[in-house]
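Researcher: Go.
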Amino acid sequence: MKTVLVFLITLLLGACATTPVTETAADKAANKVLLDQAVALYEQKNYAQAQPLFEQAAIKGQMKASRYLGLMYLNGEGVAKCPQRAPGAFKLAAERGHITGRYWLGYLYEHGIGTAKDLTQAFYWYGQAAGTRIDHVTAPAMTALGRFYEQGIATAADQAKAIEWYRKAASTGDADAQAALQRLGVQQ
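Model: Structure:
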């Protein structure tokens, strides 16, 4: 009898683990409203009220919410400054595909903020953030990749690749990339 009970519980738990949760259009809309409310409060510097909304939105799968929580922990906005909690929040956003979350995770690894310094991980996350899109959102990651290639950080030094990344970032108006190209004496 005990064996049958264990088998049934195992079967039930396995079914629960593989059953997809379907989010309705109404749920998506409500979750977006929740995130928008949190962002509005954050922009008003009302961090104490924004934080629980971001936490709720993160639980509901809003990837931007995790990035905001990471920034709050990193900068001590409405919460005690706790850089050790920032990597987890940024990683959740990064794993959900959030470009800026990926950039910030790379930044934390590069500088050893809230986590052990790991230049290989920094290079990886910057690469994930840079992706294939060229715009102001991906520009900081492209500039970071340019720097890594230029200086041979976590990869072989490659001036051509460095210039390629700097040019992509500079084309979006990124001042750091433009300055790097000027410093290298390269036309944009």
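Model: The two ends are 75 Å apart (CA to CA).
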